[in-house]
Amino acid sequence: MPDNVLPETLTWSSHPWADDSITRRVTLVGIVIGASVVAGVSMQSVWIGAISVAFLFGSISRYLFPVIYVLNADGVQTRFLGYSRYYPWSRFRRVSLRDEGVFLGTFPRPRRLDAWRGLYLRSPQQRDLVYAVARYRVNLDPSQANHESCVRDAPTTGSE
Question: Is residue 100 within 8 Å of 152, Cβ to Cβ?
Answer without folding.
Answer: no
